[in-house]
Design brief:
Strand order of the largest sheet: 1-2-3-4-7-8-11-12-13
Distance between the termini: 12 Å
Radius of gyration: 21 Å
Structural class: mainly beta
Strand content: over 45%
Number of strands: 13
Helix content: under 10%
Number of helices: 0
């Protein structure tokens, strides 16, 4: 991940950021609630994923302790397909992609040098987000996440010591619209 902040001149407050990630998504599903001819449903799946994001923004300092971060981002995630067997049926998940645009802002209030609180609101549009699969060669009706979602967030950032460039972020997000639900995060950051 990288970020460049403009700190001087007429463009002071603007920033640009980008990130890349790669990993593995693993699923191990087992249940005795669903049975067919004496077989319990169970399967394991493992797929590589990768993602990129590009963003620009502007941080407006309202007061010494309060600021608003306006941002626009493009986010892409790709998930590799997988083949597995469920009830002796061959299930083939195709590669899937997600392309989203996000606009919004975050209000940040610094209680002191070590602790700040934030609240944010964003609008997100999913351009793609369709997952395709076949069972024994027959195509399933693909679920889609295409559409708009509203996102609200609330959190707390803590820097235990000004001498160490380590900070912790605790947050919760709520989603409404195409995607609905609640998520939380705990993040540790090291700045250099």
């Amino acid at each position: 991940m990288g970020r460049y902040d403009v700190t001087e001149g007429a463009l002071s407050g603007f920033y640009a950021e980008a990130s890349a990630r790669i990993g593995r998504a693993e699923t191990d599903f087992r249940t005795s609630d669903i049975r067919y001819n004496g077989w319990n449903v169970n399967f394991e799946s493992s797929s590589m994923y990768c993602g990129l994001h590009l963003g620009i923004g502007y941080v407006w300092k309202a007061t010494e302790k309060a600021s608003i971060d306006f941002s626009a981002k493009i986010l892409w995630t790709g998930l590799e397909g997988d083949e597995l067997t469920v009830y002796q049926d061959r299930v083939d998940f195709k590669d899937s992609d997600s392309l989203r645009a996000r606009l919004g802002g975050r209000f940040v209030f610094a209680a002191n040098q070590n602790v700040s609180m934030y609240v944010g609101a964003y609008w997100e549009h999913e351009f793609d987000g369709e997952a395709q699969a076949t069972v024994n060669g027959h195509r399933l009706s693909p679920p889609s996440l295409r559409g708009d979602t509203g996102i609200g967030e609330f959190g707390l950032s803590v820097m235990p010591s000004l001498a160490l460039p380590v900070s912790f972020d605790l947050g919760v997000q709520g989603y409404t619209g195409k995607r609905e639900g609640i998520s939380g995060n705990i993040r540790m950051s090291l700045a250099f």
